[in-house]
Amino acid sequence: MRRDRPIRVLIVDDSAFVRQALKGILESDPEIQVIAVASDPYVAAERIREQLPDVITLDVEMPRMDGLTFLERLMSQHPIPVVICSTLTPAGSDVALAALAKGAVEIVTKPKLGTKEFFEESRVRICDVVKSAAQARLAKSRAPAVASVAPKLTADAILPKPGSSAMIQTTDKVVVVGASTGGTEALREFLEAMPLDAPGIVIVQHMPAEFTARFAGRLEQLCRITVKEAADNDSVIRGQALIAPGNRHVLLKRSGARYFVEVRDGPLVCRHRPSVDVLFRSAARYGGKNVVGVIMTGMGDDGARGMLEMRQGGAYNIAQDEASCVVFGMPAEAIKLGAVQQVLPLGMIASEVVRRTA
Question: For 285-294, what is each residue's pLDDT tens digit?
Fold first, then answer.
């Protein structure tokens, strides 16, 4: 069902410029209403008492009370979906990632001046993230809403559809994973469960540029396998996971028996860059029966068509179940298309992937 009213947003940021810019961006979307702005968490608490927002955009570096402290109190007392609005500094990136671990659902980068195309892409990203956050299921469940989806490019913009003949199977298996809202913690749980000799893994997590390298570094410290941000021509090898860099598409390629990734620029696909559909189509084209696909929590349908192409090429596909998803959008769309052979709780996906790739 579509919402019978706009998504109500509270903006919390100590910068008057950012408050004004975010308000203008969000109110350009008729499905979003900015009900209040606040210069710090104390003012935000007053605004929340006056009118309960559906989503809060939150700066993490503020005077009087930092964003992380406010987030922890909010999550323990009155959970509301929170989108972290962060700078691209290393310190800002680290705090933003810590906020995701503490219950925030998404990250966006602070608006800044740029080209018309850059601003429009930023506007699309910020509005989509807020709509996605409005669907997030936190400690206190919220009725899901379906946000309208504007016309968008498909993976055709990056890579032609795979041919009818599937890639010849080899002994090496490859795992491709797509995730969005709620995906950072889902991926952490999935990768922490992977053994040292896990199959090579390639991941698309919708995340702004500059955050993916630090996200990969955080996972590298937590996991037994190696985790790194993908670079062009990186080999896909056992015991390693490659995460698509923010704002770049990543494709699975093959030369003989060697799998590797290609990192490239290109337009937004399914309103995202990197796009899960682009990765999954390349896996269908170059991996075929050698691939196990996984689609995790996230809003929208990015990855659904690519996953269907993988199944048609002989891949085995797994979707995260609704109960363990923060937003059951991407898995639901893949299931609806008939692209998925198995639906599993998050905690069971890693063991099934290992079994299927043994």
Answer: 999 999 999 9
